[in-house]
Amino acid sequence: MARPALRKVDRPEEGGPRLAHLDRDRRLVEAAQADPARFEALYRKYLAQVYSYAFYELRDHHEAEDATERTFLAALTGLGRFEERARPADGEGASTFRVWLFQIARNAVAERRRRRRRRPEAPLEAAASVAAPLDLEADATLRDEAGAALRAVARLPGDRRRALILRFVDEMSTAEIAGVLGRSEGAVRVLIHRALRSVARDLDDASR
Amino acid sequence: VTDGFAGRDGHEVDALVTDRYLEALLAAHARGADRSPATTEPSPLIRLAADRLARDLPRLHPSFLFEEALAARLAEVAARLRLLAAAGAEGLVVPLTSRAPDAALTGVDGAPTGDPATDDRPDVARPGLGRPLLIGGALTSAALSLAGAAYVAWRRNRPPDSAMVRAARAVARTRSA
Predict the structure, then answer these.
(1) Smallest Cβ distance to B82: which of A37, A133, A174?
(2) What is the distance in angstroms between the Cα of A56 and the nearest Cα belonging to chain B?
(3) Is B161 exposed, middle or buried (0-12, 13-18, 19+ CB in 10 A)?
(4) Chain B: nearest CA to A11, how far in angstroms?
(5) Do B46 and A203 touch (CB under 8 A)?
(6) What is the DSSP letter of A166?
């Protein structure tokens, strides 16, 4: 059962403190826990975010789709075990569900990577396809600057790259990223700062 | 050094300054602003990199076909989960609400709930009974109602097909001895 997560909000003009739910997805999550058919609202809301994250990590359309599918299936079947853990420090509108979902996505992506390492050869259907449905870097070369930004992010090591993607593409807060990566907020801030410094140097070199 | 920076080392302060800039930058983008926040911190190189990433990193969406196929698959799984939940609920003990003996053994209008002569359901707690039958406590209680006594008598005369009946008979034998 979800643990109540409430915060005190001071609104003197409304007659003093009141309690507000922290997780913006709380109602959707509770509805889906009561009736799994209502999970669809959460699925539609977060599909693009999860897919984006998986694509930036795996850089392959089919693998990103596979990781996305595994993520949502695992989330649906495990939703009964999800517990809201939002804290006041997470801020208004923080979503612990989104953090939980992205933890699943992170595992799904890691699983795809492991499989890729075990079986590095390209599958037959990939070899047979004339062109990948989406080639981000090829599209991005149309805009030189975008291509340079993508390459600079792709060159970053694991968690620095993940932190930047979650910050800029999925627009997560530092607290949410900390939850997904299993690090402290301070560590995530430093991670992002250092990642930006690397990207800045890369972009500076590319422009010369 | 401004508020919130006390006790932090140089890296943490720089990281915090960058974090605040990113907050302002991404909020401006969300509002549709075409200009970056006017500030002198963090360094121009960091600001330029952040501005480029906020502007140039595309958000992606899978194909419509994939979206609908996965939606259908999730709907199937959801339907299966509902079935499983429904099947699982049959095996659960129904919570018993009333604790008054009379209310436990009779309905609202005072009539016994269910017909003991035709009721051959197994010995499970039933909502109409109010609470599980505690054999020892029920027979020694001075507040035992007529309906309760009738019920226990009926239990004694039933074939010994369950532990509950055997226990009721054993208690009755003890009392008559």
Answers:
(1) A37
(2) 9
(3) exposed
(4) 23
(5) no
(6) I
* A149–B contact, CB cutoff 8 A: yes
Q: DSSP state, A120?
A: -
Q: Using one digit for the tens of pLDDT, what is the confidence trace for A10-51?
A: 443 444 333 344 578 888 999 999 999 999 999 999 999 999
Residue type (1 letter), B32: G
* CB-closest option in B18, B61, B67 to A193: B18
Residues A166-207: pLDDT tens digits? 999 998 999 899 989 999 999 999 999 999 999 999 888 877
Is the torsion defined by CA of A177, A180, A186, A191 positive or negative? negative
Contact call for B70 and A68, based on CB within 8 A: yes
Structure tokens at A80: 């009964």
Q: Which residue has the tokens 């089919």?
A: A62
What distance in Å separates residue A72's CA from the closest CA in chain B?
8
Query: For residue A23, what are the CA distances in angstroms to A185, A200, B52, B152?
Result: 18, 34, 31, 53
CA–CA gap between residue B106 and residue A161 (Å, rounded): 68
B124: distance to nearest CA of chain A, Å?
A: 26
Beta carbons of A166 and B11 less than 8 angstroms apart: no
Is the CB of A193 inside 8 Å of chain B's CB atoms? yes
Copy the structure tokens of residue B39. Answer: 């500030």
Predicted ipTM?
Answer: 0.77
φ/ψ region of A173 (left if φ > 0, alpha if ψ in -120 to 50, else beta) reads beta
Per-position DSSP letters for A187-198, written without gaps between them: HHHHHHHHHHHH
Instruction: Give first-to-last CA distance, chain A, whole Å.
Output: 57
Cβ-contact A96, A86 below 8 angstroms: yes
What's the rounded Cα separation, in Å, for the pair A106 and A177? 12
Inspect the interface and report whether the beta carbons of A37 and B75 lie closer than 8 Å: yes
Cα–Cα distance measured from residue B65 to residue B137, given in angstroms and rounded to the nearest whole number = 65
Contact B58 A136 (CB under 8 A): yes
A113-155 pLDDT tens trace: 998 888 765 544 443 343 444 555 555 554 677 788 888 999 9
A46 inside 8 A of chain B by CB: no
Closest partner CB to A36 (pick from B52, B57, B82): B82
